[in-house]
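Curious: can you check?
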Amino acid sequence: MRTGSYLWRLFVRLLSLLEIVVFLQLSLAAQTQEDAQLAARMRHVAQFYHDRDGFSGVIAVKRNHHLLFQGSYGYANYEKQTPFKRDTRFAVASLSKQFTAAAILLLQQDGKLKTSDFLRQHYSQAPAAWDAVTLRYLLTQSSGIPDVDFVVLRQQHQADIPQILSTLIDKPLSFEPGTKYDYTNANYLLLARVVEEASGESYCQFLSRRIFRPLRMRQTSCVWNTQTTRHRANGYMQSAKGPAPDEDEDLGGLTGAGSLASTVGDLIRWTEGLHGGRILSQASLKEMLTPFQPEYGYGLTIQGKDKELDIGHVGKADGFYSQLDYVPAIKTTLVVISNLVAAGFNEGPGALEMDDELTRLSEDADSIVPSEGKEAKVPEEILRGYAGHYLQDGVKNPATAIISFHDGRLFLQKDGKEPVGLHAESADRFYIAGEPVELFITKADNGAPTTLGVLKFCPTQVDGYKKTSGEIGSGAAK
């Protein structure tokens, strides 16, 4: 009897284990199917902006160490029609700044400096006018030190760092250190010199020893140079005849601020390593991600909060555009790197819109994104509440935007042009079909609309408009 009871209990336990195994298999299958559907939508987004805007480059989205999507579009070399490969390197420009910031924090952990130190303690050439400048002010782009005119230096073929920095010595500060935000490359050129002084190594040796090797970033190098950088993508600018060669031959003059060459895979390793605690202590990482001025920490922008917190940076160089984002709430890294820029400014065609849509899909797989041409259903009373006149905020000669409601849809009229229809992505976010523009409504605590934000992609620009009047009739503005 006891034997039978034991066998029965054993049978029940085995059955329970089998149920658990089946449950896990079904859950994994469901998750795999969800990921496949999400990857298909991401692929559509990327293909849309390649077809519409000519995006050229590589994209990757990785969540919890699992690659959700990776794709490449265009060519690494258009003359030879060379496709992108896993080890294709790009000039990542200002993405370099976060590595410099991490190097400073590593040296702080080593006890060789403090971010509260004055610059003159580690850079003997600092003039008296810089006495109040601390390393933290450099890190947060609030030092007041003016930027270097790299256009002039390039024309004069100057790439020697001491010579470049010497052009700043006699210039007055733009403002009192710590009082304003002013993004400059000069701040990070100086920080690279601090790294060398405090470590006793070259900037490149320190980064290689403390960051690149531990994270197995084998395809990342400290200087972008077209003569020595292997497996590199060529940089191009859009033209009427197609992609035209356009890139800096040597970014060595931007050491610390924008000199690195890297790949999509290495940038993901770096981001996962940084936020996963493999490089910095938790205290150092917290310091790095705490904005001193609005939305800027140490070499990183910090935008949004809670589930929508997005940590990243943009890199711009002649012929190249890169964007690296990390969304902590879902442990997702997103990389968009382009070797084609639009004429007149260093923005990758379609790259910003693509990055925005892929980020939103990563955060919420049910999001509506403009490239799919779908529209959310928003109650009519909410749409009617948005109608009215909006006056541009913070400018001397403000422009007026008019939102009107007609036949169940909102219309936007600006600068006396014909009204254009708005398509709802959500109850307070809209897009204009076929245009790199999105609009979002900010509301007061009582739900009343107060501000209209117009986000323009490529180049990035956000215009704010304050609502000045209530609903405008039932007809579209003329």
Q: What stands out?
A: The longest strand covers residues 66-73.
